[in-house]
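Module 6 notes. Inverse folding takes a fixed backbone as the condition and produces residue identities as the prediction. Think of it as a translation problem where the source language is geometry and the target language is the twenty amino acids. Below is one complete input and output pair. Work through it position by position during the lab.
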């Protein structure tokens, strides 16, 4: 019986620690205006490079509006680093809207 309670207490501590760490990790969604995005190859270039930047969790491009929506973890990267990543691939990313996701 002592063993059962020991396992239960350890399990509770393990899960509470895991959830506490996830609560600290906030995500932000930023929309960028990208004038240099003209074709499907531009979108592929963005997806190939920006999607794999540290902290980026989601990326959506829209060719009609020349925009890219980037979701990223605030503890891994920031807006300036993402703008720099676009600059490295020859594109100017201008932030247009920023929202916070939990």
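Target side of the pair, the amino acids:
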């Amino acid at each position: 019986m002592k063993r059962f309670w020991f396992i239960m207490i350890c399990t509770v501590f393990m899960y509470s620690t895991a959830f506490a760490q996830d609560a600290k990790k906030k995500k932000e969604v930023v929309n960028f205006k990208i004038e240099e995005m003209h074709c499907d190859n531009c979108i592929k270039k963005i997806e190939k490079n920006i999607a794999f930047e540290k902290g980026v969790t989601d990326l959506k491009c829209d060719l009609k509006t020349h925009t890219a929506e980037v979701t990223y973890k605030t503890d891994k990267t920031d807006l300036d680093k993402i703008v720099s990543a676009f600059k490295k691939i020859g594109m100017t990313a201008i932030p247009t809207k920023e929202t916070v996701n939990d």
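Reference fact for the lab report: Residues 32 and 57 are 16 Å apart (CA to CA).
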